[in-house]
Structure formats: C-alpha cells, structure tokens
Design goal:
single chain, alpha+beta, Multidrug-efflux Transporter Regulator, Chain: A, Domain 2, 3 helices, 3 strands
Length: about 90
C-alpha cells in the first residue's frame, strides 16, 4: 500500500499516485479528485471551464468526465508551482 504525502498526490518516493492500474490512459472524476486531493465539484468546475488539458466527457448525454492521466499530472504540477509562489490557498 502506498502512502500519500499530503495533498500533492504523490507517495513518499515522489511518484505520482494515479491508481493501482496506473497504466490506464484516463481516469474518472472521483478518482482524479481523490488523487489530487481536491473536491470532485472543484475538479468538475475546472474541467467545464476548459482549464484542465485532456479532460473530456463521455456517455449518451456527455455526463461523465474523464481525465487523461499524463496531462492531468502535468496540469497538477503546474498548479502546484503557482501555489508555492503564493497563489491559491
């Protein structure tokens, strides 16, 4: 079992934790929010605003968000750099 190190979505070794099946190309909203340590509602809002590269909707009514794991990790790293400079919380 990997241990998350705070809200940054990384284990103690610094590797991004996406899921036990981290070779998947995309993950769902709930899992992505859990990995990033943010509320699903917040992640959904960012995706709807077009702020997250690789976010897309699937389903008959396009009601389910999916996130490309490679692009999600890059986006999150850029967001973390902004927080270190005093932006965000």
């Amino acid at each position: 079992m990997q241990v998350r190190n705070g809200r940054d979505g990384r284990d103690k070794g610094g590797q991004m934790i996406l899921s036990p099946l981290d070779k998947r190309r995309s993950i769902g909203l709930t899992e992505a929010a859990s990995v990033l340590g943010i509320a699903p509602r917040t992640l959904r809002r960012h995706a709807a605003e077009g702020a997250i590269p690789g976010a897309f909707r699937i389903g008959k009514q396009r009601s389910h968000w999916r996130f490309r794991t490679d692009l999600l990790e890059c986006w999150f790293e850029r967001q973390g750099a902004g927080r270190k400079n005093g932006a965000g919380r």
